[in-house]
Amino acid sequence: MSELRQDPIHRHWVVVAPEVAPRLEPVRAEPPPGAAGSCPFCPGNERATPPEVLSLRAEPSGSGPWCVRVVPNRVPALRVERDLHGSAKGVHRRLDGLGAHEVVVESPDHEATLADMTDTQVGRVMEAWQSRQRDLFEDRRLAHVLVYKNHGAQAGARLAHPHSQILAMPVTPAAVATRMGHALDRYRDHGRCVFCDLLEQELHDGSRIVHSDPHFVVLCPYASRVPFELLVMPRRHGPAFTQATPDEITALARILRDALHRLDAGLGNPPYNLVLHTGPNPQALAPTVTPGPDLDASWHWHLEILPRLLPIGGFEWASGGSVNPTPPEDAAAFLRGLSPQATPCT
To answer: Alpha-carbon distance 193 to 186, whole Å?
Structure first.
């Protein structure tokens, strides 16, 4: 029987309706066009990209071939060379296209995925994300830094080589600011972080937990927007990913690989979007969300993984909610029962 569920963090409403589509067929991630020989991200083709802003090498000494590169996007959505200028006319506001748009080349291997990389390699990707966020936050014109990954053409990837993207903006995106506002309101009303309360409740219930370790918990959210949506949350409260310790980065790499292996094993390498949600720049000149002790106490950085198994339709665009035919309890039980090393279904 269908029901409406409200997410405690986003506050959106989701229709959980198993009778709409009781069984989902596997949807494989289709690789975007581009062969390894002509790929600008493959070793030997480094001149095909703008000069790198970060390179992590295979050897601890910093020598040897690169294992992760970060380069400016060749066609950036926003440019750091712009100024923080804007204007308003009536109800309309505008800002110059200030920001930074970077690509994290996650591996020299053209065919690799985060799921089949080593824990060490995924950890280096996390290190690159963290390093670039720290560096971009030194620019006080930038209010927020988004990190996201599109896996598969259906999820928006345009190149086959494994990569993620970083987009720094002079404003905090409205969806993120709204979410932070909800968390801040609840903290001021109850004196507690809604994410910490959510973790405590979900661990006590257990039905939506997929996997956990001393550092992180992977769960299917109570009001999952899409089938098999996953939330990866640190147990230790902290507003910013930049504050994650080296031990937490190592643990995050391991548990993220486990989660993606389970999706591969159960759903056959599905397309997905991965998003890292972190706090705003604490020293931004024009913050959309005002940094401070209350925000630090109320916001809890986390990762979201959203498999792209169903199209987005009119109801989603009109309501801001969604219809999910797979109850998160069923999704979590299914993924819990899989070995992360199982052979993907065909």
So the answer is: 7
Q: Give per-residue pLDDT as tens, 75-109.
A: 999 998 888 888 898 999 888 899 999 999 999 99
Nearest partner of 107 among 39, 40, 51, 41, judged by Cα: 41
Give the domain CATH number at 266: 3.30.428.10
In angstroms, the CA 194 to CA 198 distance is 6
Contacts (Cβ under 8 Å, ≥6 apart) of 111: 36
Asked, for residue 250, whether it belongs to a domain, the answer is yes
Three-state DSSP class for residue 317: helix
Contacts of 278 (CB under 8 A, 6+ apart): 133, 145, 147, 239, 240, 241, 242, 301
Number of domains in the chain: 1
Q: What is the pLDDT of residues 142-156, one digit of tens each?
A: 999 999 999 999 999
Name the token pair of 158.
């345009």
In the DSSP assignment, the letter for residue 96 is -
Tell whether 86 is covered by a domain. no
CB 53 within 8 A of CB 74: no
Asked if residues 221 and 18 have their Cβ atoms less than 8 Å apart, the reply is no
> Does residue 15 form part of some domain?
yes
3-class SS at 119? helix
CB of 241 closer than 8 Å to CB of 301? yes
Per this entry, what is the length of the chain? 346
> Domain span at residue 215?
3-73+97-336
Reported as a single tens digit per residue, the pLDDT across 263-316 is: 999 999 999 999 999 999 999 988 788 888 999 999 999 999 999 998 888 888
Distance in angstroms between the alpha carbons of the first and the last residue of the chain: 30
